[in-house]
Amino acid sequence: MTLDSVRRAYDALAEDYAALLPDTRAESALDLAVLDAFAREVAGPVLDAGCGAGRMSRYLADRGCRVHGVDLSPGMVERARRDHPDLTFDVAALTDLPFADATFGGIVLWYSTIHTPPAGQPEVLAEVRRVLRPGGSVVVAFQAGTGSRDLAPAYRRVGHDVVLERHLFAPDDVAAWLAGAGLRETCRLVRRPQGREADDQAVLLTRAEG
Description:
seven-stranded mixed sheet, SAM-dependent_MTases_sf, methyltransferase activity, methyltransferase, two-stranded antiparallel sheet, Methyltransf_25, Rossmann fold
């Protein structure tokens, strides 16, 4: 699966995705508690990397963060700008963020690394670390486990013929990739599935060393 296929998939899904997930109703109170802790401790602007239609950008902005969202999908960014005109959104890949070194006090990767296979995770996190200030915070959410899930059949049932898969990661592996990028784990949440979720969910909160 290439970046182009992920981009095309989310361009096709943007309107329905935003309607299905307009806010944080899909998150558990535990998920949001970690995000709230991030919002309280962060100093400086926040990057919502892989922002989709902007629902987590909105959540963070409502908690006092100065948020800039980026997403690979122009369709998602268009919807984010429409739904949240007071916030700033741009099109960008996680591996090529259009910002100077040490721009942000905090970065959110809320289920935005799940389409990158394990071998590509260090590159993504190295780029995230590049634009993070010393002492800044990064929060990463993902499905916990091993292997991958083909999402195409589920989307085909609701009228979208897309190529899309997501990867599950062991929390220890994610913590190791983060550590390799100079990000020290400070909090870990792993919870069982709820609602329509099929897999365990994990959130890691980290801080940049140095």
